[in-house]
Each structure stands twice: as C-alpha cells, then as structure tokens.
Amino acid sequence: MRWGAVGVPVLLFPTAGGDAEEAERFGLIDSIAPLMAAGRIKVYSVDSVAGRSWTRKDDPRHSMWLQNQFDAVIREEVVPAIRADCRDDSTEIVTAGASIGAFWALEVICRHADVFRLAICMSGSYDLSDRLHGHWNDDFYFSSPLHYLPDLDDGWELDMLRSRFVVLACGQGRWEDPGESWRVAHVLGEKGIPNRVDLWSHDHDHDWPTWREMLPLYLDDMA
C-alpha cells in the first residue's frame, strides 16, 4: 500500500498479525495526513508475513526461517519498489512501526543501514526468543538485533549504523514494557549507535491511540 504522492518515503510495518491496510483501518494514516498533504512524506506498508507466523504459533523453525526470508524480501523487493516509485535509486528511507512493527523497524535499520536512515520504534516487542521453545538457528540470530549486535565487530556496517538514528518510544500505561526499550538502547549505546528512549505517560497504553499521537510528532520533527 502507498499513501501520499511526494516527500520522504516512510516504510510502516504493521503489528503482529496485521496486513498492509491495518494502519489505515486504525486511523494511523489519518493522523499523519497533514504531513502527506504538505508533501513532506509518503507512506508505504506491507503485510506482516513473519509476524503472522509467530502469532499463529507455527513451528518456531518455520517462523525463524520465514523471519529471515521476510527481511530479504524487504531489502531485495520492497526497497527497490519504493525507490522506483520515488524515481531515485539512492533515496534513503525512514521506517516506523508499533509493537512487532517496532521490532521490524529496528531490524531493517540495523541490517540495512545503507538504505534506512531513521527508525521510529513505538511500544516495541524486541525479544522474540521466548517463542523459540528450545530451537535456535542463524535465521533467528541474524534477524534479531538484540542478539547479533553485541557480536558485531567494527567495520563498514557498524560505521554506517553510527550515522543513523533510532527512536525508542514507549508509554507507561497498560500492556507496555519500557524495559524492552531500555534493553535495546543499552545494546545500541554499547556500539555507539545513536538512539533515544522516550517514555510517555502512564495514560499512554500499548494501543492505537498512543501510536496515533506518537507517529505524527516524530515524523514532523525528524523525517
């Protein structure tokens, strides 16, 4: 899906089992409509194929494989499609998402910092290892920033990441877990990757009203 005609491209990931139209159904697109009308951003979204597998509680070995395949599709198919739509083969993309969508926003900027310049991660669930039920493989390791970043050695990948920025926004209301954001911030900070944790109030729950308030603020300020 795409909304808007011109502006900075934003790849928006849905929540765990969401599809590409979820953001529109839950009013997130309406919340950023003024930025699109002003020609500042245009927004793309994809189905949460990998997230849906975790939600269905598929065999974790399949979910891990699918997670890595989903990353490849984003880099090898979605990014070129966005760049073609922008008529710019070198345009850098902003990414955003809430809940599992925040995991994906973090994942793609960490693995593809040559493409993504800013990640807006809202109410993120960043550690999926409790869903593995004893299974573990490279598909999971290399698509989980919390696990592979601590082992990332100095080199061009880390140098590129150090020129990017990650916002970790989280409410303190119902169903929120600020500890997840702080854990990611610690891992990023240890590697010198610029990031910021923004804790919102206890009135901000892990729910769409919170994200409808957060996203336009960060896009207006940083995109």
Secondary-structure map:
Layout: E1 2-3, E2 8-13, H1 22-25, H2 28-31, H3 33-37, E3 41-45, H4 49-56, H5 60-86, E4 93-98, H6 100-111, E5 116-122, H7 138-141, H8 145-148, H9 156-161, E6 165-170, H10 178-190, E7 195-199, H11 208-222
Parallel strand pairs: 2-3, 2-4, 4-5, 5-6, 6-7
Antiparallel strand pairs: 1-3
Helix pairs in contact: 4-5
Summarize the structure.
With about 220 residues, the chain is α/β, with parallel strands linked by helices.
List the defining traits of the structure above.
single chain; 223 residues; alpha/beta; Rossmann fold; 7-stranded mixed β-sheet; 7 strands; 46% helix
How is this structure best described in words?
It is a single chain. The chain has 223 residues and is α/β, with parallel strands linked by helices. The chain has a single domain, classed as Alpha/Beta hydrolase fold, catalytic domain (Rossmann fold). 46% of the residues lie in helices and 17% in strands. The chain contains eleven helices and seven strands. The chain has helices at 22-25, 28-31, 33-37, 49-56, 60-86, 100-111, 138-141, 145-148, 156-161, 178-190, 208-222, and strands at 2-3, 8-13, 41-45, 93-98, 116-122, 165-170, 195-199. Strands 1-3-2-4-5-6-7 form a seven-stranded mixed β-sheet, sandwiched between helices. Strand 4, helix 6 (100-111) and strand 5 form a beta-alpha-beta unit. The radius of gyration is 16 Å and the shape is globular. It starts with a strand and ends with a helix.
